[in-house]
UniProtKB/TrEMBL annotation:
This is HTH lysR-type domain-containing protein. The lineage of its organism: Bacteria, Pseudomonadati, Bacteroidota, Flavobacteriia, Flavobacteriales. It holds the Pfam family HTH_1. Keywords: DNA-binding, Transcription, Transcription regulation. One of its GO terms (molecular function) is DNA binding. It comes from the Bacteria. Belongs to the LysR transcriptional regulatory family. GO terms for cellular component: cytosol. The keyword Signal does not apply.
Length: 297
């Protein structure tokens, strides 16, 4: 069993298409198929069901995928140990970012990549739940996310800051002059909100339920930039963390119920995993940028 075979298998499992997977690992489709077939013969079980041009993971394939990813991650960690000795002259960081922390991440990325241009950074955006799953599967080195405190024994958490949910509106919105709004008032305006799965949405839904208020959103989106575009029209309002709209001068963030709705941001990584030198430096830069910018709260 070779690492390249595991790599080909993982890519095929992610694409569920041999041709697409082969293209992404820069080999021919026939070569990839042959290596996966050799892997299956060594394991003694099929990893994929082949249905015409379509492929699907078998039960054995699904179980093997997790182990294959961890094996590749361990190999990458071993390689990183040596690369770290070269004083950050090479290597790659895989970072997961939730949308509400985009501004903090972007500022840190600019500083980091300017100082360490030889380090490649690959960033993946998603909901906190999606990022946790990618982290556990070994696809990410660490994530920046909003979440409740977790007792997950697999994950180490470095707390960052507490951020409050606010009503986000355009400066032309009828509520623009308000100093704060109540949960009850949110029911009187047209809301466009993040889709289910976003931590922000979970907290908002819970607030309505806790106050025994009926709620129905006119628009739900899983793409925050599009949501922001809607709010900029002045017709809709939304609920997001204050940090999300930090650099959008035409939008206003109005506190809800005296800042009772809050989230805690954190850096999270898998316990026991080797922490790259580049990761540790990125962590420190995040903390420095936060200390320089208290508006994130």
């Amino acid at each position: 069993m070779e690492l390249r075979q595991l790599s080909y298998f993982v890519k095929a499992a992610e694409c569920l298409n041999f041709t697409e997977a082969a293209h992404k690992v820069f080999i021919t489709q026939s070569a990839l198929s042959q290596q996966i077939k050799l892997l299956e013969e060594e394991l003694g079980v099929p990893l994929f069901d082949r249905i015409g041009k379509r492929i699907q993971l078998t039960e054995a394939g699904s179980l093997f995928l997790t182990r294959a990813r961890h094996t590749l991650k361990n190999a990458e960690n071993a390689k990183q140990l040596i690369e770290d000795l070269q004083n950050l002259q090479s290597g790659t960081l895989y970072i997961g970012v939730t949308y509400g922390l985009t501004n903090l991440f972007t500022e840190t990325l600019i500083s980091f990549s300017t100082k360490f241009p030889a380090i490649q950074v690959k960033a993946f955006f998603g909901t906190s739940d999606e990022l946790i799953e990618k982290l556990k599967s070994g696809m990410l080195d660490f994530i920046l996310s909003f979440n409740k405190a977790t007792d997950d024994q697999m994950i180490t958490t470095i707390p960052l800051f507490q951020s409050y949910l606010t009503l986000v509106i355009h400066e032309s919105h009828p509520f623009a002059s308000k100093k704060q709004v109540s949960i009850e008032e949110l029911n009187t305006i047209e809301l466009a909100v993040p889709a289910e799965g976003f931590t922000t949405r979970k907290v908002l839904d819970k607030a309505f339920r806790t106050n025994e208020l009926p709620y129905q959103y006119q628009i739900e989106l899983n793409h925050i930039p599009t949501l922001i575009r809607l709010i900029e029209t002045g017709k809709w309002a939304t609920v997001l963390t204050k940090s999300t709209t930090q650099y959008l001068p035409t939008l206003k963030s109005i506190p809800i119920n005296k800042k009772k709705l809050k989230l805690r941001s954190a850096i999270r990584y898998l316990k026991g995993n080797y922490q790259k030198k580049a990761s540790k430096i990125f962590f420190q830069m995040i903390l420095e940028h936060y200390k320089q910018n208290t508006d994130l709260n």
